[in-house]
Q: What sequence folds into this?
């Protein structure tokens, strides 16, 4: 795969490491056990577009959010969440 | 001799000597091994997989299912190499394979008599009784019989390379379509890469007699190559096979740099794998001839009609002296013409059509060939070579014809594999009688020429020109398509698939799959294309079913009454041609498999004769043997006692070091660590532990506050990279508003632990600075010139860690030793920390909680931190969890080993009595007996208990006493010393 | 029709015309006592044991494509029971026991070949971790031997002992480990289930799960609606997609794992060898091909294909441990979709929906689990209670924290 890093340009996927879905948001400290369980363990795992974290380890070292179709690997977007 | 007197693209001025099965022959540069063997009258090359039937040369390309040999000898032996793809070189040695004792007389051919028994999938129905016989009796027999060539079994002596290319337009294949595409794309100024598997450009032009722009095809290819090489941005890679299409315009190709030589030149890689990233791609890989199924279609002397033309025209070799040509249309008649033009007798033409066009009938008459219209091949005869062809006429009745060559025109399969590698399925086209590229090829790819089913030369050239021009435009170059090279449009009608059932009508020549096997698969319900492929192993041999694959599908389609489109094909996946494992690995082998990291003090340690050990990708000094020490244990004991009784120095540069700065650094550290760190004063160090978000321990280390807004933290060697990524996630994603910045400085600093009651004198001598305890107490940190000093102790002794810029590390350690410190290595470091009960690798295994490791007191209830919520799950709070304890052998003598399990003394060795395991063990020279750390269920409540340490895999069985994990100086008086 | 050498000989004499289909290509009925979704090894084994062990034969296996088209047909065929954690070890050993009698049980030669599985170690820490594992296996009554470097060299002299970046120090050997013929397992269970009355329905994709008042009532498929009060999901890489039809989210991500086979060669490597300082494992099939693989590609994917960097990584691992592989050629490569769970261990459990059962999370280890997975899942479906061999595989373990994290890498599926 080639990932279009917003800082470094299009780069080969082995420059990056993968974490997983970007959408579950970390609950507040006092959230329920169910909310924490859902955040840490449950995944939509869609066959289709997925917003996911990739870390540009051998580049800018930014954690990027890539929108990618898990059936075709087509990348619709790659953004730095801070930007 | 079968070499024709004239013609061909071989260099007759030079001769090349080569050996096959020990006999020496000669050929010419430009030959393949196959053409040279044919020129020498050698037609029997090997034995088939299952029935050991004699097999010869069927094609003139790498797709050959039969002509497999072991190429080269010794460590360079390459099994299963198609002789049709081997360029002849002087000194080449090849051997036939899968025969015993010899190729001509093969005892295993007895399998042929058993053929009725050895039908598809027979092994699934037998060899089940008696139960234990499979591994002992049946399987070894099958394994010995299976396989084809022999691997060398020796390390590959050659080297391989991997490299990257980026281009605007990648053109795969340099036949007529590919050359036309390259002309069109190249003139736009685009960066073009043209890959051709052959050593020469031209593709089928080299095998046919045709004209382009008034020149012979091969000459046009040569002049076109000159034009292309003049384009400054165009690169031609010959002997290069593109074998895989991957995501986002990435292709993989293998360039055979030295396979046409006896062995590579000095420093030359044998092969190179290119990773090519292309904006656009033109797939012009051409087409491969397919087989015709009829009884005895495997006999040496049966050859595909297009291959016959190739041997005649390109190699000037007569594949036989008396030919029969079997065809269903114009394709075979072209071969008839070619044979006649070269003066080879055509005994007969067998045309499946009842009505043969008059021009073709006239040709037969003119050359004196008998014409059988509406006929079929009934059988072939001949022991190891074709002697007789039996033709069955339209009205019945069989004719026996003497011939040593049977040229069969089975039609062409477009080479669509690369267009399907991203999941597209080929589409059956009835009019072209072929599977065409999928409607959705990989993004950016266009398929042109014969690969797209455009078999005519004129249309192929026009298609290539258009595709090349379109690709350049799509890649952003303003250009218009040039006038395509001109060639006649021989509107060759498609050749339909031709199946003539009967015994031993093979659809897969290498795996010995027959029409009968397909029928059996059908009968037993294996009708889905993947089911019958797997059941019969059809198309799974080294030729990947390139010549025969479609025949099996056609046979199944005929049996089920479904169309070819409904029957479908199997998926295509990389590699489209088998690729050497060594080439894909490139230079990453032996010592270069992974990088080696050395600390700044490495050279010094090596001078001391240190024994080194891998610690991840680092090499670390394990111990420093001295004269008279014969066992490693002696060195380690001495080093430990040096620290306990005097002073020692150890290289701890491999620890991860991360420097933080910013006004919110304290808050960020509080979020990362389980304990409170924002309260750490400037000039002080604190131990801390981090959890993963799931509540288990990630890592531990120290945090030193150097200035009000500057900290340096350490991680374990193993987790340095993961902790940094974890911190970046925590900051960038979870706490983006915190004003903090950090960077790994692991490689920037050399760091040494100086430990022992005399550590202060050594440090003072090195720094030339007084550091009294009052001014620099335990857990103090500070800066002295270029050095950073931390008063932290892993050993429990009065100890410092001193860090200097990496370039000063070598000098520093020499000064430390000169000041009286004894070097100690990783082993002694481990003993010292086990004596102190500090958790490390064996305990920080990713499965333990802070409480398990005795760090529960650090868990702060006053703040949020990563992992806090999940650490509160009930199973993580269960008091029965294995928890850190110390152990010593009941007899104070028996060695303890990590990995032993702990059981109650009187309980039988069964899993229900398993209560924990030893995580780290050592001999303590300080105490004079072995000690260990362990994780024991309900650990803290069990001090004083006696257990069994059960270690059956090392025949160990020891009684141990459970004690506090800290064995030496539990009050911590020494480190304050 | 029973298979035997006598039957084979008789058929050989009459042109093999007497064979019948190994299983019926059934059309779906309007209703069943239980429906198993997924015609892979696990689903077919489940149906087989439901019929054989629990007398539940009014069962359909629904397969969206051809049976065995998922991971059952694309794996490296390794069987072993050399796990660290007791919750895993007892299950995989039960599976091994079932493998050991499978040919006779199914009257089908699944080619279970116990030529040993050897895990190499390259450091003292790795040796100790393997000792812990091997000792645990012994406590389960499972065979395990810790070999030193000399013993490994005697067994596999062609490994790189002399020029390796990470020298081989020894290995953990399970002699009863080995390989089995993957397609034969699918076909054998299919034939066995079919003979006991199970309907195997191919080209039948489940597109909906009917749930009424928290209870499952049936499935909707591309071949019509089917009523069933028990619906059992054995969908491997597609588990999340199918479970989502019932509104469930799972602790699973789908990832690609690649595997490779070389050209067939005469016997070269005996047993299974795994590299301990990189991602690589290898064995040789009875046909002669070297079958090998490595790490997962590392990102969520439903595309059954792999990426080039991982291809290269696997080959590097191969050359690091077996430098004789250099001139051998990779013939085929494939990618399967792994149901990677959050702790790397599987789930065989009820779901919050009554009558809906889940068998998932097999990561890259589902093949070896096939018999016990079917056995335990059938028990769960029949009795609505977990079988003791698989009772650690609970869905609520992520809530309670009783996770089975063999590698200790946490809730990140691509690291397991």
A:
């Amino acid at each position: 795969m080639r990932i279009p890093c917003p800082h470094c340009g299009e780069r080969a996927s082995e420059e990056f490491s993968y974490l997983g879905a970007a959408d579950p948001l970390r609950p507040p400290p006092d959230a329920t056990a169910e909310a924490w369980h859902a955040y840490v363990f449950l995944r939509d795992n869609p066959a289709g577009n997925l917003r996911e974290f990739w870390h540009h380890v051998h580049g800018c070292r930014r954690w990027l959010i890539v929108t990618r179709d898990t059936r075709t690997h087509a990348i619709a977007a790659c953004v730095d969440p801070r930007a | 001799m079968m070499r024709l007197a004239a013609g061909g693209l071989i260099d007759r001025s030079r001769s090349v000597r080569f050996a096959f099965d020990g006999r020496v022959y000669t050929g010419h540069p430009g030959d393949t091994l196959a053409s040279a063997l044919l020129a020498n009258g050698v037609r029997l090359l090997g034995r088939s997989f299952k029935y050991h039937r004699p097999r010869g040369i069927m094609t003139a390309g790498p797709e050959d299912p039969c002509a497999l040999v072991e190429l080269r000898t010794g460590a360079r032996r390459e099994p299963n190499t198609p002789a049709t793809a081997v360029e002849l070189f002087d000194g080449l040695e090849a051997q036939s394979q899968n025969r015993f004792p010899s190729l001509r007389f093969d005892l295993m051919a007895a399998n042929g008599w058993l053929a009725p028994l050895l039908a598809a999938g027979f092994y699934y129905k037998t060899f089940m009784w008696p139960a234990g016989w499979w591994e002992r009796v049946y399987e070894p027999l099958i394994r010995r019989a299976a396989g084809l060539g022999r691997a060398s079994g020796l390390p590959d002596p050659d080297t391989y390379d991997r490299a990257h290319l980026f281009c605007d337009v990648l053109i795969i294949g340099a036949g007529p379509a590919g050359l036309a595409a390259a002309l069109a794309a190249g003139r736009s100024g685009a960066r073009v890469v043209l890959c051709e598997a052959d050593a020469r450009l031209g593709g089928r032009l080299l095998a046919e007699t045709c004209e382009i722009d008034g020149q012979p095809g091969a000459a046009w290819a040569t002049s076109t190559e000159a034009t292309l090489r003049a384009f400054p941005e165009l690169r031609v890679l010959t002997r290069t096979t593109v074998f895989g299409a991957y995501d986002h315009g990435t292709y993989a190709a293998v360039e055979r740099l030295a396979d046409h030589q006896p062995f590579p030149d000095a420093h030359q890689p044998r092969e190179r794998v290119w990773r090519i990233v292309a904006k656009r791609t033109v797939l012009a890989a051409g087409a491969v001839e397919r087989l015709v199924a009829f009884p005895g279609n495997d006999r040496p002397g049966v050859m595909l009609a297009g291959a016959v033309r190739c041997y005649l025209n390109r190699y000037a070799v007569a594949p036989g002296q008396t030919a029969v040509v079997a065809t269903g249309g114009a394709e075979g008649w072209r071969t008839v013409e070619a044979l006649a033009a070269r003066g080879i007798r055509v005994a007969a033409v067998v045309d499946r059509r009842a009505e043969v066009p008059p021009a073709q009938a006239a040709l037969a008459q003119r050359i004196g060939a008998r014409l059988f219209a509406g006929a079929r091949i009934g059988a072939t005869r001949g022991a190891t070579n074709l002697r007789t062809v039996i033709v069955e006429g339209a009205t019945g009745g069989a004719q026996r014809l003497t011939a040593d060559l049977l040229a069969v025109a089975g039609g062409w399969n477009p080479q669509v594999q690369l267009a399907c590698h991203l999941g597209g399925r080929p589409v059956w086209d009835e009019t072209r009688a072929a599977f065409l590229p999928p409607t959705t090829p990989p993004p950016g790819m266009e398929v042109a020429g014969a690969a797209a089913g455009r078999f005519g030369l004129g249309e192929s050239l026009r298609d290539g020109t258009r595709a090349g021009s379109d690709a350049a435009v799509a890649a952003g170059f303003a250009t218009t398509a040039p006038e395509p090279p001109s060639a006649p449009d021989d509107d060759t009608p498609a050749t339909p698939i031709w199946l003539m059932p009967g015994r031993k009508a093979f659809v897969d020549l290498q795996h010995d799959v027959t029409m009968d096997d397909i029928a059996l698969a059908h009968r037993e319900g294996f009708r889905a294309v993947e089911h019958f492929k797997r059941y019969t192993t059809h198309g799974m041999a080294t030729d990947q079913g390139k010549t025969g694959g479609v025949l099996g599908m056609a046979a199944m389609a005929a049996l089920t009454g479904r169309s070819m489109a409904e029957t479908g094909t199997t998926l295509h996946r990389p590699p489209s041609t088998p690729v050497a494992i060594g080439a894909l690995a490139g230079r990453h082998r032996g010592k270069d498999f992974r990088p080696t990291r050395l600390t700044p003090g490495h050279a010094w340690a090596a001078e001391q004769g240190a024994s080194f050990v891998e610690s991840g990708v680092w090499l670390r000094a394990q111990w420093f043997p001295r004269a008279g020490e014969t066992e490693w244990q002696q060195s380690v004991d001495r080093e430990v006692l040096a620290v306990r009784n005097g002073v020692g120095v150890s290289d701890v540069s491999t620890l991860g070091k991360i420097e933080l700065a910013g006004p919110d650094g304290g808050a960020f550290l509080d979020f990362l660590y389980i304990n409170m760190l924002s309260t750490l004063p400037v000039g002080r160090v604190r131990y801390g532990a981090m959890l993963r978000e799931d509540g288990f321990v990630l890592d531990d280390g120290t945090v030193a506050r150097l200035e009000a807004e500057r900290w340096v933290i350490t991680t374990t060697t193993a987790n340095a990279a993961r902790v940094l990524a974890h911190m970046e996630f925590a900051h960038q994603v979870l706490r983006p508003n915190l004003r903090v910045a950090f960077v790994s400085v692991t490689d920037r600093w050399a760091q040494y632990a100086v430990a022992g009651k005399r550590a202060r004198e050594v440090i003072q001598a090195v720094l030339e600075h007084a550091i009294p305890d009052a001014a620099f107490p335990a857990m103090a940190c500070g800066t002295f010139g270029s050095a950073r000093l931390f008063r932290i102790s892993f050993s429990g002794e009065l100890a410092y860690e001193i860090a200097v810029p990496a370039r000063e590390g070598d000098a520093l350690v020499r000064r430390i030793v000169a000041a009286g410190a004894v070097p100690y290595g990783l082993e002694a470091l481990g003993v010292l920390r086990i004596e102190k009960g500090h958790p490390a690798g064996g305990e920080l295994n990713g499965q333990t909680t802070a409480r398990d490791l005795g760090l529960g007191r650090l868990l702060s209830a006053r703040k949020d931190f990563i992992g806090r919520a999940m650490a509160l799950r009930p199973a993580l709070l269960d008091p029965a969890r294995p928890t850190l304890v110390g152990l010593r052998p009941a007899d104070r003598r028996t060695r303890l080993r990590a990995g032993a399990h702990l059981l109650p003394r009187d309980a039988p060795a069964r899993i229900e009595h398993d209560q924990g395991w030893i995580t780290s063990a050592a001999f303590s020279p300080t105490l004079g007996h072995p000690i260990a750390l362990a994780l024991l269920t309900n650990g803290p409540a069990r001090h004083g208990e006696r257990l069994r340490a059960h270690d059956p895999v090392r025949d160990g069985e020891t009684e141990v006493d459970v004690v506090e994990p800290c064995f030496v100086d539990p009050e911590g008086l020494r480190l304050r010393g | 029709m029973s298979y035997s050498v006598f039957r084979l000989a008789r058929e050989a004499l009459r042109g093999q015309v007497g064979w019948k289909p190994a299983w019926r290509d059934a059309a779906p009925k309007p209703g069943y006592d239980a429906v198993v979704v997924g015609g892979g090894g696990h689903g077919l084994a489940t149906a087989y044991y439901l019929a054989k062990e629990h007398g539940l034969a009014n069962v359909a296996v629904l397969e969206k494509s051809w049976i065995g088209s998922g991971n059952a047909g694309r794996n490296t065929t390794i069987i072993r029971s050399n796990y660290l954690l007791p919750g895993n070890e007892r299950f995989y050993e039960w599976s091994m026991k079932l493998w050991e009698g499978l040919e006779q049980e199914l009257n089908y030669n699944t080619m279970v070949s116990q030529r040993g599985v050897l895990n190499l170690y390259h450091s003292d820490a790795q040796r100790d971790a393997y000792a812990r594992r091997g000792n645990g296996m012994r406590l389960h009554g499972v065979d395990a031997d810790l070999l030193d470097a000399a013993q490994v060299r005697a067994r596999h002299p062609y490994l790189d002992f002399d020029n390796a970046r990470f020298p081989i120090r020894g290995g953990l050997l399970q002699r009863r480990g080995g390989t089995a013929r993957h397609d034969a397992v699918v076909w054998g269970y299919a034939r066995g289930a079919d003979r006991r009355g199970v309907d195997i329905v191919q080209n039948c994709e489940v597109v909906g799960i009917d749930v009424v008042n928290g209870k499952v009532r049936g499935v909707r498929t591309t071949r019509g609606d089917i009523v069933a009060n028990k619906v059992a999901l054995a969908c491997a890489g597609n588990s999340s997609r199918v479970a989502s039809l019932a509104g469930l989210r799972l602790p699973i991500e789908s990832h690609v794992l690649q595997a490779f086979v070389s050209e067939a060669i005469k016997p070269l490597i005996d047993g299974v060898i795994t590299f301990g300082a990189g991602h690589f494992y290898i064995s040789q099939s009875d046909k002669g091909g070297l079958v090998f693989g490595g790490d997962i590609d590392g990102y969520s994917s439903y595309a059954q294909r792999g990426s080039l960097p991982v291809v290269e990584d696997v080959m590097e691992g191969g050359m690091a441990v077996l430098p004789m592989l250099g001139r051998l050629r990779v013939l085929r490569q494939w990618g399967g979709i792994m149901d990677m769970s959050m702790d790397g261990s599987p789930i065989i459990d009820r779901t919050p929906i009554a009558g809906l059962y889940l068998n998932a999370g097999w990561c890259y280890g589902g093949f070896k689990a096939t018999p016990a997975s079917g056995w335990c899942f059938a028990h769960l479906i029949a009795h609505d209670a977990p079988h003791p061999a698989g009772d650690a595989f609970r869905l609520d373990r992520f809530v309670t924290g009783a996770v089975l994290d063999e590698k200790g890498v946490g809730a990140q599926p691509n690291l397991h």
Remarks:
- Chain B has 22 helices and 50 strands.
- Chain B has six domains: 1-153, 160-288+414-474, 293-409, 504-559, 632-833, 879-976.
- The domain at 293-409 of chain B is CATH 3.50.50.60 (FAD/NAD(P)-binding domain).
- Chain B touches chain A at residues 246-250, 277, 422-423, 443, 693-694, 725, 728-729, 732-734, 736, 864, 868-870, 872-873 (CB under 8 Å).
